[in-house]
């Protein structure tokens, strides 16, 4: 058991290391605080790993992942990470206050970390969709010799789904030499934990007048709802998507506010993260399109479009190659997308009423989302009203990601042939989950703007 945990720890640390290497070279002249650097390094590490796993799976080369190669690559990453730290001229800013916040979060979530290591995998989608695919990629060297994808006996697994999550799980299986559903859950818990740290770091960075206890109270009150705890490590991929969306929103804010107009420094990781999101969940594809529009739009606004768009497009090729290989394989294996289009003549108006009703129900009944969703919605309305009244329209920019994703989900509900009375209740909790960390970032960002308006007595 100790050996499995050690490997899981190395696997998690590896993602931090390669993310740190990437940021150290990209942001060599930028100082970042450790509470922001850690979660961004995590999500970027995964964003770099997932397309590579797709490529290995396409060429049936997953067998090269084993304890020996894993150890060699980890040691190399450790050495390069140390070198990268010296290359970064300004480095990562660390203070006692930041370390206290980070330590408090680790101590607070120790019971949840322990639970993720020993809890059983009981969620249907986790067992029947994600982890069964991971086992298929553990047994097979890739896509082409994969029984699950070549046979017609596994249609219930929704084989058209992206395989980023299963490939990460299969990598861990290969590193320890067998399938272990318990300890691998701690890996996915880190998408949740890093979302918490990202929110903590952003709040700490934006509203400096808050005490440490106030910061902890605000963040934990938002992130320890039943919805977060349930999906934090139950084998679903939704928390990974939520972490990706929140990270992109933070980077978009940095890109817009950068006075030196070094937009490519933020646009590159934005597109890399959003691109890997399209390799994790189907919902990641419209999010990638939205990120490209917003990111390139900011670059055009700052008149630094040529270099930023060119360099980010080159980086975007990396996850797009993985996506195209997967689409080619699905076409060759005759794997069709499970969401067939709506039949002609269907009553769209009736569907709209059901969808809007579900949205409104979320703001009336706490259920698993808890009262946090309701309070956040009304706080967002207040902040938006204040910003519009003072014509601070630029502060509304991060809302584009949330509104855009809601629009994409609404469109999906309108065209799907699945019964809405079944699909809406079963999927809406996860829709909310994917947007909540990003919503927290938006509330903090807009809250900071409104606080400045109040402090300058500009509201009236």
UniProtKB/TrEMBL annotation:
Transmembrane feature ranges: 6-27, 39-59, 65-87, 99-121, 185-203, 210-229, 235-254, 266-299, 305-325, 371-389, 396-419, 431-447
Highest taxon listed in the record's lineage: Bacteria
Keyword Ion transport included in the entry's annotation: no
Keywords: Membrane, Transmembrane, Transmembrane helix
Protein name, per record: Glycosyltransferase RgtA/B/C/D-like domain-containing protein
Protein source organism: Candidatus Roizmanbacteria bacterium CG10_big_fil_rev_8_21_14_0_10_39_6
Taxonomic lineage from the root: Bacteria, Candidatus Roizmaniibacteriota
């Amino acid at each position: 058991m100790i050996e499995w945990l050690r490997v899981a720890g190395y696997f998690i640390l590896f993602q931090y290391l390669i993310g740190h290497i990437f940021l150290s070279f990209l942001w060599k002249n930028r100082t970042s605080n450790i509470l922001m650097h850690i979660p961004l390094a995590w999500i970027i590490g995964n964003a770099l790993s997932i397309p590579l796993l797709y490529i290995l799976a396409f060429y049936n080369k997953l067998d090269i992942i084993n304890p020996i190669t894993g150890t060699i690559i980890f040691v190399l990453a450790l050495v390069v990470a140390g070198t990268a730290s010296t290359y970064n001229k300004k480095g990562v800013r660390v203070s006692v206050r930041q370390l206290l916040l980070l330590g408090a979060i680790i101590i607070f979530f120790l019971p949840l970390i322990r639970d993720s290591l020993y809890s059983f995998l009981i969620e249907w989608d986790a067992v029947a969709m994600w982890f069964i695919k991971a086992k298929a990629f553990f047994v097979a060297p890739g896509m082409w010799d994969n029984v699950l994808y070549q046979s017609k006996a596994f249609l219930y697994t929704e084989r058209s789904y992206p395989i980023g999550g299963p490939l990460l799980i299969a990598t861990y299986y290969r590193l320890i030499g067998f399938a272990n559903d318990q300890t691998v859950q701690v890996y996915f818990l880190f998408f949740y934990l890093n979302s918490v740290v990202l929110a903590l770091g952003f709040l700490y960075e934006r509203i400096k007048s808050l005490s440490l206890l106030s910061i902890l109270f605000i963040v934990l009150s938002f992130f320890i709802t039943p919805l977060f705890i349930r999906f934090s490590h139950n084998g679903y991929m939704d928390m990974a998507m939520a972490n990706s969306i929140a990270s992109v929103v933070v980077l978009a804010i940095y890109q817009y506010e950068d006075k030196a107009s070094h937009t490519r420094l933020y646009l590159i990781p934005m597109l890399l993260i959003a691109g890997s999101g399209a390799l994790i969940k189907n919902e990641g594809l419209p999010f990638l399109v939205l990120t490209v529009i917003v990111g390139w739009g900011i670059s055009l606004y700052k008149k630094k479009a040529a270099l930023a768009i060119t360099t980010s497009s080159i980086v975007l090729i990396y996850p797009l190659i993985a996506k195209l290989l997967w689409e080619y394989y699905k076409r060759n294996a005759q794997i069709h997308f499970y969401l067939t289009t709506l039949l002609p003549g269907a009553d769209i108006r009736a569907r709209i009423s059901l969808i809007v009703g579900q949205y409104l129900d979320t703001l009336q009944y706490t259920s698993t989302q808890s009262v946090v969703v309701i309070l956040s919605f009304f706080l967002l309305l207040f902040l938006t009203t204040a910003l519009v009244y003072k014509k601070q329209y630029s502060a509304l920019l991060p809302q584009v990601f949330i509104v855009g994703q809601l629009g994409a989900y609404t469109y999906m509900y309108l065209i799907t042939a699945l019964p809405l009375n079944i699909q809406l209740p079963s999927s809406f909790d996860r829709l909310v989950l994917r947007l909540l960390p990003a919503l927290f970032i938006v509330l903090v960002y807009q809250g900071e703007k409104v606080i400045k308006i109040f402090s300058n007595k500009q509201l009236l």
